[in-house]
# Entry
Amino acid sequence: MALAACGGPYSALAPAGPVAANVALLWWIMAAGATIIFLAVFVALAIVWRRPALLGAAPERRLILWGGLALPGAILLLLLAAAFVLGERLVAAAREDEGAIEVIGRRWEWSFRYPGAAGAVSTGTLHIPAGEDVAFRVISEDVIHAFWIPRLGGKIDAIPGHVTRIRLRADAPGVYGGVCAEFCGTDHAAMFFRVEAHPPERYADVLAGLARETGQ
Amino acid sequence: MRTRHPLALVALAAGFGLWLAAFILLYGSLSVGCRLGWHRIELAGGLTLQRAQLVALFAVAVAASGGLAVALRPVRPADEPAEGFLRPVAFRAAVAATAATVVTFAAVLVLTTCR
Amino acid sequence: MTERMTDPDAPPATPTPPSEPPRLSPIRLHKALSAAWGTPPGLGRLSAVNHTVLGKRFIIAAFVFFAIGGALAMLIRVQLATSETAFVGPDVYNQFFTMHGSVMMFLFAIPMFEGFAIYLLPKMLGARDMAFPRLTAYGFWCYVFGGAILVAALVAGVAPNGGWFMYTPLTSSTYTPGINSDVWLLGVTFVEISALTAAIEITVSVLKLRAPGMSIDRMPIMAWYLLITAFMMLFGFPPLILGSILLELERAADLPFFDPLRGGDPLLWQHLFWLFGHPEVYIIFLPAAGAVSMMIPTFARHELVGYRTVVVAVMAVAFLSFGLWVHHMFTVGIPHLALAFFSAASGLVAIPTAVQIFAWLGTIAAGRPRYDVPMLYLGGFLAVFVIGGLTGVMLAMVPFNFQAHDTHFVVAHLHYVLVGGFVFPMLAATYYWLPHITGRACERRLAVPAFWLIFVGFNLTFFLMHLTGLAGMPRRVWTYPESAGWDGLNLLSSVGGFLTAMGFALFVMDIVVQLRFGRRFRRNPWQARTLEWATPTPPPAYAFAALPRIADRADRLDPGAIGVALARGEGYLGFDRDGRMETLAVEMASGAPQQVVVLPKPTYLPLATGLATGAVVLALLFKLYLVALLGLAATLALFLAWTPSCGARADSGPLPIGMGETAPPHWEAARPPSWWAMVFTLAADATLFGSLLFGGVFLAVVGPAVPAPPIVLPPALLIGAGAALVAGAAAAAFAVRRLVAGRSPAAALLAALVLPLAAVALLLPVIGGLGDPTLHASRAVTFVTLAYLILHALIAALFAGFGLWRMRAGFLSATRSLDLRLGALWHGYSAAAGIAGLAFLCGLSLLGVVLPAVPGVEGGPP
# Structure
């Protein structure tokens, strides 16, 4: 059953891009660490209940000092440092970008505008080039939505009155699932979208085709 | 049992009170700085006005919190029983708050300030 | 010994104190005190103000709401059991999950802990009741009426449907035109009144109403937990109340606080909501942790180790919890450095929590542990809560949060924290303290299978939900396609949900069985060492026939021996003084007895006031604003009707309190409970005002930059109004000085009445000259700030008028100056708020000039 989370079109644990892969790695490390900590707490409980003598005389001070302060403190500092480094790549990388694809959330569909190709717009399907960083500029036309492609990694809210940004990359051409993560009313559950990652050499053609469709 | 001023109890919360004040100050000046574009004003050697002011505030916060902990350090002999409780507890809280100040805000030294 | 002697303002004490009432035999003492403290039978029960009665009512009502919330959870699990289920549609489902969250948070968790606190706190502290019994009753009615409004809306099919955190613009009148959102905003705010009254009561009761000798370092650890929790509520709830008021104003009057097209910002709601919402989680957890800290020592047969460390840890949790609200908003596009502050604080909060857990383990290690039903449930608490804490640290890490946020992973995490951190400890607490309520000992037969059903069912439901979330399932979806691959996990979660429900059904059966067939016992069935077990069980209305003198830490006592002595009337106040309801107030730190607090008799006034408040809420809901205004006047008049039974018309001087000591009645003391209650009320009020000012600055600095129309603030009027408020405060303070010096305060009071009215007269043209406040958020903020100041000036005038009335009625003298000192506090606050508010408005209009001139605005519209 645990495998169920690792597969599927929307699984964050089946990464298809570097951001999702880093976060998935972080998750597996944290999950392993959490399992060890959880077991350690219950081993400690068994010891204090059954064999407190193992802890020597007056064990309470040492328990609080090591179990409460020192160990969790050290683990936390390591984890924070790792998360900050990763966060710099994820959050801070998403700055203003001329060529960013504009993502428009509205109840209850997603539209995508491609500034490179004159007037190209698609609704319900996002076209990106595979193997390169893609910048997104996310806005909303009504309520708050959240733009999320679990297999590529990271989500960002679409908030009326704000522009939010994110950078993602698909390692290989393929089709990926996207969802609206922030509750947005009646058809929130139906606000899926499809992501098609094209080989970079074909991407311009795809956009040109889109522009022709939009023009008609 | 001498009647003491009720404000003596406030010392218990002084350490973390400073932490909270630092939090509001740093978060507030970070937002204001980003709004006013201080992260684009370079002072020297890659140091922006934004980072400079945040690091300065961080230093003040650590100094204030550490100073409070020093001021509350245990003195002997404790002059009355309740004092023997309030002061040590206030001291430990101030030490914990100083550690919290360092951990919470140390990121001003390295992370991207705006966006 | 008494406070009066150390108070330089007070005149010398009356030299001849009245003699002590006669000693009675234990039986006659019990009869006399029962007659004085009892609640009338029949319909008279509605007049109850007693903490034992109201505590039980809070607990029962909270459990009823828990059952309603649980039933909604089952409906949710039916709907999600398989893909594309045709059980309910999205419109009904959205009400289900919104109400499930709202009911569990506002109508179950908070009131349940309030009920435990109200029932237990006075008994743990060695007092006969809470500080403000009528306020307890009023809070109860506000809670029940507010809850009834929400549930009635659910039955009528117009329940809130925007999610329990009510994100706007989804909940604005544009996207939710019906009354669904209004029901939430008004109903929950109504219920919050009871949370605030409880917070004030708990704070004052812990600080003042303790047994003599119980210095602050001797308090039972639960009192520390509840004191700190109550402080958190004082500062945590006002931002939510302000947010609700602003959103309701936007919905009802079109003031655009959250509309990005008119200078508002939907993110302001998120900040205000989570500024409350995150401390809220710890407000729910800490009382439960306090209960754990009471139970573990009893079953470990050893006092809690690291008492001081635990106090520091609880304080650290309380403060840190106010610095991590943005971890609910990591994906809204905030700079990484700001995220880092909140991320670090969110992770840090795990450390004081770990300190508490290891203090409990250390207590077990130091003692000789013994197993019983409460310990089984505490084992469940430890397992579930530790997992919740660990996933909490994971979610605090920004990159992971970007993936897991708004998915079922978060749903799993929050249930681990709240069910682990509150429900399991409360189940343990129920088994632990139920014998105190019923006088019947705990039986194990059904309690053990009930535990295993709940524990296994809960973990099946929610452990798997972590995986469902990582598999990409967002929260709050009413259905999902089969192709998403979420079917198997969801089906197992639903099965687990129904196992949990069966476990709770068994728990309810068990409670009924124990009420009916439990074995009776004499006293202290668990051999606990805290004071609540020194009352007779079930407890009489007066709790203690006499109040003990505490000479050791309050978790090292022998309740059996103390209880016997107190029942004989050996201790303080071990007599009946003219049928008055008396308890003692002590000096906060040292626990020296200071005042005789005379408590009010049962009365229907709290019920009537609650009904009037409910009428205001309903009138606002149905947009009958004239009726709402009338209801407000009625509420105010009823509150004034509470006062004639307070205080006295003659000086009494120090009264004998037994043990050869004396203390004045509270209205002759310098700082009685009501004085502190006013201070804490003003602290909460200041937090509300501070949140409003924060909102104004937030919108100006980081909100969408929409050019604001100019705001005209005539300086002469502002300065005049500020001066009038300050002069009014000075007049109110001067009135107190006159009275204490033995001279008439009438002229000063009259000035304190007129000056705030003059300030109102000066501010009204300012508000009138603002122009249309619906044009831009900055105008709306200015409008609300001015309205806030006007309201406070009006109430200040009311206090001065009240002082004149009390003077005429003979309640005031040089020793009885409390009424005027309460008014002076309000006046002082109004003046301070006036200065701050007017300075803020000037600054805001300056910002409006400065900011648009700055090039390269971040976060503005394209």
